[in-house]
Amino acid sequence: MLRNQNISFLSKNRNATETVLIIIFERAPYHPFFSQIVLFPSPKSDSSRRIIKIKIKPPNSPSRRTQIKPQSLLQMAPIDPHSFTDSTHPLTTHVSLTLYFHFPSSTIHATALLALQTPHTGPLSLDTRALTIHNILDPATLTPLSFTLSPSEHPIKGRLLTVYLNNNSSVLILYSTSPSSSALQWLSPPQTSKKIHPFVYTQCHPVHARSVFPCQDTPAARVCYSAKLNLPRELSAVMSARHCDRHDPVGTDLDGVLTNEESGFDLKSLWCEEGRIVEEFVMEQPIPPYLFAFAVGELGFREVGPRTRVYSEAVDGVLDAAAREFAGTEEMIRQAESLFGEYEWERFDLLVLPPSFPYGGMENPRMVFLTPTVIKGDASGAQIVAHELAHSWTGNLITNKNNEHFWLNEGFTTYAERRIVEVVQGKDIAALNIGIGWRGLNEEVERFKDNMEYTKLKNNQEGVDPDDMYSRVPYEKGFQFLWRIEHQIGRPAFDEFLKKYIATFKFKSIDTDTFLDFLKANVHGIEKDIDLQLWTEGTGIPPDAHEPVSNLYIKITSLANDFKLGRIPREDEVASWKGQEWELYLKNLPRTVEPSQVLALDARYRLSESKDYEVKVGFLQLAILSRCRDYYGEVEKTLKEVGRMKYLRPLYGGLVQGPGNEEDKILAKRLFAEARECYHPIAQGVIEAIFAKHVEVGPRTRVYSEAVDGVLDAAAREFAGTEEMIRQAESLFGEYEWERFDLLVLPPSFPYVIKGDASGAQMVAHELAHSWTGNLITNKNNEHFWLNEGFTTYAERRIVEVVQGEDIAALTIGNGWRGLNEEVERFKDNMEYTKLKNNQEGVDPDDMYSRVPYEKGFQFLWRIEHQIGRPAFDEFLKKYIATFKFKSIDTDTFLDFLKANVHGIEKDIDLQLWTEGTGIPPDAHEPVSNLYIKITSLANDFNLGRIPREDEVASWKGQEWELYLNNLPRTVEPSQVLALDARYRLSESKDYDVKVGFLQLAISSRCRDYYGEVEKTLKEVGRMRYLRPLYSDLVQGPGNEEDKILAKRLFAEARECYHPIAQGVIEAIFAKHV
């Protein structure tokens, strides 16, 4: 990779069977044109996120938001590899939150009041991710405090927020979350059970609390908290905290928090809106930040014990089934208390979440979150409740200091869970669980054979995303370690040790060494009997680990061994089996078998139809690895109805594993593209990590890139439909002549391409169309450029019409029509540039680059189609391509061919006027469609002061907004610009066509509130489609000196990051206007 230079180079070999375009950029994402290869940023980067802000006042002093210096990172003394928390800074002891839930934008507008252990002078380091920090105040005086936010986001830690204190003991932070918050999943009404109201919930473990509120996001920083949640009245909330009150919002809710004038953050006007309700909660015991939790939706509940309610969406069937499944919860609590001591959290309520919840359960104190897949109908799902209950002592009461010691949470909890199960469900069931865990531990050790660091209990996680290394190792190896100690000293002695351990360290966060010191101090000579260092710091499974033994365990594993010999268990042998027995049986079968064996097993026992997902997914995994495709329909159904990572990992992993498995990889990509929005962001990231190793997006298409997290999976999502586009293009234009259509992704050169909704595939449609018009038939020179781009624009829209529908195709035509009219206006002093065939003698083609050859060329071909009919034009097009392929031609050659093959066309259409005349011919067609008319009508309403209602634009994506913005007046009142953005946050759109269209409106209207966003945009993109209008609008008009000075400063600062072509274009703009 070349440093500190911008280099662009093309390599093409027309005689080769594969075409590769390579673009290399460094320093910044600046290239002036679309490329045939589409480039993306990582989806974790700011440039690919839509941050929805509320209106704030600009800071008074630029020094309040300065870029953080690299030296400050070196000076930090971190206590956690996944946090910016500094050991020299006081820890937070209490957080007071006010949270306003805005469901239409999937955003929370909030304040966080952080109370510190001691007053502090100097920097305070906090973790954030995808948060917009509006202001930070001294709560005593409501005066601003200086702060910095690191300019880029660390892929694991997020962004460092540094607040500069002067003997402050607390700080008040005004902020908003983002729709891309990694902790939050926002479900639209159609994604919920009743499909009436939206739903949102958190999953903050292990490092995601920082995307809900700024904090020291490490388990070492235990905090108490209080929270006021402002939500729509028809909804209710639960939290990992005691519920205190539900009341109408009043201004006093925010007393002592802020005033509008001093903060510039108008939460008060939102807070007291009609139709809202406030729920108040308090957590009086110190918890690690990852246990912060809430859920908001239409919730109902059932009482199942004196200390337990079961909550879920207000659906009677779900609530009743959950109440039956967890009826024995109080008995489990009593048994756990007899083993581990008093239950310290008062209540043990359960929330059954929608299917997208990524885990089996989350041990949030007072309010455990559960996946609906644990409701099995036979009470066996209560085992997960036993696990989460056990966390009330090991994990919540005593917590690992950081994720390098995660086994202290999960190993202890797995041990405690099995002790509870043994008492409540019997020794045989407990032994089964141990057996399943033993098998799972061996599978994990095999999975990590190339990175055995992950098989240690105490491991080095510097630079490692804890979500990426999540496994059963800390659970099962941790359990095995404690079980080994129990075997050594006997259960009664170990029980006494366990109670003393809990009593000693409750409400503390500790590390492995602290535990080992306590163990050696209380169990004399244990280090002589057990190699403690081998167990905690060694890889793999120590030789003195105990394989479980019980009659039932031996029987099941023996029957699994018989399967290798072709024997399926008899019905009398499995008559009493429930889910756990079948799970152990499936885990002990060979990894792959003959498809006929899979079919025979299911024919007898219908495991593919099991209501127990442990059994069903275990069987489907066997079917996938054995390539028994009879069950792929059930695999698809399962992947679309559950979001638990325990099930997603093996199913997606099985589909993409192995060489020569392209058909299954394509299936996996399609299923993920269709189901992705129903998964939690954490689960999305895990599946993307699986795909990062396997990125075939079609039989003729691969996506290449550097090994950068998120780039490949973002491309796979955006372009999952590429093969379908190729097939449709072939049906229109003839055989694809280039064998492969591969994409090379170079991060982060095109930060405006990835849109997250597959609409970016339209650009691929354009470049694909070039495979016939432009690459196969090429303009003879640039005076006939329309032969490349007019034909390709026509072909692109025909592909889009088939793949994305007539409405979307009509929108693109409408946007093009508007753009063509703008270009004709721009060239009114040099109308030569509005001809299709024009004289370019002595003219730099870069200076006259415009949309004219694209859109006027399209209009010409569309006019011919209208004249002769689509079937006849399609035949003509195929004949044209077959006649001139691998040739370079001019306009006259095309016209001669047209007249020879479409009799009398020159009488019906003035061909000379179209190709050599200026402007837009009178017989050009303005596009018409219901959607086009609706959008342009709404744009006309804007002149009357009416902004579209949310229901009118609910289905809009980038193309609709682009057409709307294109049809607004060139200038409006600044107040209208502000009102439009206040409702729809267009200034923060991740679709740059929308964002730049809005910023262009803001500049033309001299609404300087957005000039900071203009500056940011001009420094992060280099595409001339965006640079031209932004720089042009800044410098146009008399008496506009302030904006001209700004434009020149921005260009001076960004110039070296632009491609030389773009530099020349902007210099030409300045030469004309400055």
From TrEMBL:
Cofactors (names): Zn(2+)
Free-text remark on how the cofactor is bound: Binds 1 zinc ion per subunit.
One GO molecular-function entry: epoxide hydrolase activity
UniProt main location, coarse: cytoplasm
Record's catalysed reaction(s): an epoxide + H2O = an ethanediol
Top-level enzyme category: hydrolase
EC number of the protein: 3.3.2.10
Similarity field: Belongs to the peptidase M1 family.
Designated name of the protein: Leucine aminopeptidase
Source organism of this protein record: Salix viminalis
